[in-house]
Amino acid sequence: MDTNNPFVALRRELHKIPELGFREFKTQQFLLDYLYSLPQDSMEIKTWKTGILVKISGRNPSKMIGYRADIDGLPIIEETGLPFKSVHSEQMHACGHDFHMSIALGLIAKFIEERINDDLLFIFQPAEEGPGGAEPMLKSEIMKEWKPDMILALHIAPEYPVGTIALREGLLFANTSELFIDLKGKGGHAAYPHNTNDMVVVACTLVSQLQSIISRNIDPLDSAVVTIGKITGGTVQNIIAEKARLEGTIRTLSPESMKKVKSRIQALVKGIEVGYECEASIDYGSMYHQVYNETALTKEFMEFARSNTDINVVECREAMTGEDFGYMLEEIPGFMFWLGVDSEYGLHHARLNPNEAAIEKAIELIAAYLRYKG
Ligand SMILES: CC(=O)N[C@@H](CCC[C@H](N)C(=O)O)C(=O)O
Fold first, then answer.
1. Which of these, 162, 60, 151, lies nearest to 104 by C-alpha position?
2. CA 43 / ligand 1 centre spacing (Å)
3. Is 218 in the same domain as 331?
4. C or N: which end of the chain has fewer Cβ atoms within 10 Å?
5. Which atom of ligand 1 is nearest to the CA of 321?
6. Residue 1 lies in a domain
7. How many domains does the chain have?
8. Residue 324 CB less than 6 A away from ligand 1
9. Are residues 267 and 312 in the same domain?
10. ipTM of the complex
11. Could you tell me the distance, in angstroms and rounded to a whole number, from the CA of residue 374 to the centre of ligand 1?
12. Same domain, 89 and 168
């Protein structure tokens, strides 16, 4: 890889300092340091919590075009062994937000030199992985003043080769809701189970029951997912657990199915309380609106990329991933697309290693489109 490419170098620096949602302090400072090192004549910079908004004034603007990059990392211990691996032992850019940011920096550097007619707004958004930065950022005073007329964003896609993008009109990403279930019963001595209500047994039973929602309550043609990613409970091997906690996420292709899944979870949890004489509480954490690509702009972008660039444009299926960029697309016409980065390991994996050649490809593609649109 061309390590002389300044945006690859910036990506590597950002990769070293992943931070969780709304705690992206070093990331924000790193981005600001770079942004303030650029000529300032056409650029205005504002911060919002740990995020940043950068407006580049056009020569003769009739609209403002937005590009959004998310900036947070994940609580994953990196296992890539890369020389520029995370210096934060328990956090990693395992969802490509380091790519998303460096691509935005590349576009900013380009368009402060080569100004187009329209205004450009670059949004460095915190907390995409949770609890969600897009919705409150959109409601902020800054974004009331600087509200783009159209907006785009990308997400890295390990399964596609470099030089390929994938998208579709309409639904691209699912509706999501986090899921936290706390169980409380009666603990005790491991040798006297009859005197207790074992929350480890209850948690295991509930995890199995939750799987029946997808197989028996949701129309097979209307996909949904319930994933429990974490179970905690108990203290040591010979004490029956008084408490257990399930942490997971729900994904559905329609808002109606989300309601259905939640009502079934509530019923099953109630059944568990009665059946196992314990207390249970459900917290849905943060929820993300589906990512819905506006038809005309998506079509136009796909046609543009096919006719004017060497990018391979794939019309893909919808995915069960979630993205709070969906809130921005609910209010501002635009689209999101997958950017091929060809990694053997997928998103949210400790060995995700996207091909950095995709950074320059993305900068060239988006720059060409912004020149055409603006
Ligand atoms: C693109 C991507 O991987 N996004 C995340 C968004 C997570 C939202 C929330 N924390 C949840 O788990 O529901 C994803 O996991 O799809």
1. 151
2. 32
3. no
4. N
5. 16
6. no
7. 2
8. no
9. no
10. 0.96
11. 32
12. yes
